[in-house]
Structure formats: structure tokens, C-alpha cells
Amino acid sequence: MKSFLFFLLITALHLCPTQSWAGEYLVGSGDVLAISVYDNDDLTTKVRVSTSGTIVMPLLGQVEVQGGTVNAITDKITGLLADGYLVNPQVNIFIEEYRSKKVVILGSVRTPGLIKLSGPTNFLELVSQAGGLEKDAGDTATIQRKKSEGDTTSVIVVDLLALIKKGDLSQNIQIQDGDTVFISKTGMCFITGQVRNAGTFSCGNGTTVLRLVALAGGFTGKASKSSIRIVRIVDNEKTVFKDVDLYTALRDNDVVVVPESFF
Predict the structure, then answer these.
(1) Which of 102, 126, 193, 250 has the fewest CB atoms below 10 angstroms from its CB?
(2) What is the mean pLDDT of residues 139-150?
(3) Are residues 263 and 230 in the same domain?
(4) Sequential DSSP letters for the chain
């Protein structure tokens, strides 16, 4: 039933008009750009972004484009062409191939593994690319995302029940480059943060936070053992329990977060 509901929801999303996110996409190595300049066919080119984040443009030579949006790159090339080459150049750029963004999806999907994002992709589209949910999929998914500062990660919990059965599109998170997505199985819990081996483990009846920590290889030296949080879906609502005891019993699909101690 869950797979059928998922099929209906993803089909509806593809049939409905959606906002174009291409203008917000950050160009990276491997992407292919199609560039044209009005009334200057000799400047029309199709070029792949190099590993160093540059392209080679007629007249201009190497141009740095890494991390820029299509609009920003268009403005940059327009400005360079206007600087002594053309009068009022009109540049048009679109991304012909998206190759630079990759995510990993694991757990209860039919074809887990590495997926290249072919443009802006939301959670449901990613699951669809991974073949859809398995029958043993649980009620939650987690997205591990690297923060911009340092090597720390954040965890986003997706309520699959709310998304698939109720059509709550606030749960349809936009996927980002480098995300790791895990679709939980029934009877499994996820632990992340300051443990030696973050991941998903069996959490049957009687499993405590301490037991889950042990399955994850124990705390790291930076763990704040008194500030552990549990993220749990209660009555179809995401609830966060703060500063939980190590002997707190877990439920299916709980997400345990062990933060870093700053003292």
C-alpha cells in the first residue's frame, strides 16, 4: 500500500507545474553549459566545466564558473565580452547536462547507491530515481547534510507517513549535493552525532539509548552525554525530546542525536 501511495503522489507531483530552480543551481565540475551570443554565431559553444571549475570561451579564454548560478555566469561573461570585444552583447546560457552534484541513498529502496542529480531534485524525486520504496520501509527517513562551516553535519528527519499518506509536501525536502539519505526499515533506529559509527541499527523491544550507543561503537571524546535528543513521530507530528536519560526506551524509527560538548 505504501508503494502504491508513493506512486500516486510522485505522479501527481510530475503532472503539476513546478517552480523552476535552475536559476538557483550552483554550477560545478562536470556540468555542460550551452552558451550563445545573439548575432554572434562564432561565439556559440557547448563546454564542460573542468575539474578546476573553469570553461574555455571563444575570445575570452579560460573563465572561472565554479559555484556560480546561471544568472551570475551570464552576467560575468556579458561583462567580459562588453569590455573591449562587443557592443551590448546579449548572452544566453543554459545547463545542458547536470553532472557535478551527487547524493547517496541507502536503506529500504529498490536500488540504493550513488545517484547523480540531473538538476534540482526533491526527496520524492530522489526516491523515485532509486526505484521506489521497499515493502519493509519504515515511517521515517533521515537526510545527513554537511554544514557549510567545518566538517559537522546536520540531520533532517522526513516523516514518510505524513508525506506519502497525507500529501504533506513540507516533508518533500530539496536534496543538496553531498547529502546522504537513509530510508529506515520497520524496527530500526538511527543514531548520529558524536558516536564512533553513526548509522541505523535494530531497536526492538527494550532497546535503550545506551544500547544503541553501544551498537554504534560508543561515544566519541567530544560527546555531550547529558544533552542527547530523540526525534520521534508522535501522532503524525515530529516531536523532539531533549536531554534524555541513557536508559530511555526507544521506539521504531526513532532518531537519536548525540551533540558535541563545548566545555
Answers:
(1) 102
(2) 81
(3) yes
(4) -HHHHHHHHHHHHHHS-----GGGPPP-TT-EEEEEETT-GGG-EEEEPPTTSEEEETTTEEEE-TT--HHHHHHHHHHHHHTTT-SS--EEEEEEE--S-EEEEEESBSS-EEEE--SS-BHHHHHHHTT-B-TTEEEEEEEEEE-SSTT-EEEEEEEHIIIIIS--GGGSPBP-TT-EEEEEETTEEEEEESBTT-EEEE--TT-BHHHHHHHTT-B-TTB-TTS-EEEEEETTEEEEE-S--TTPBP-TT-EEEEPBP--
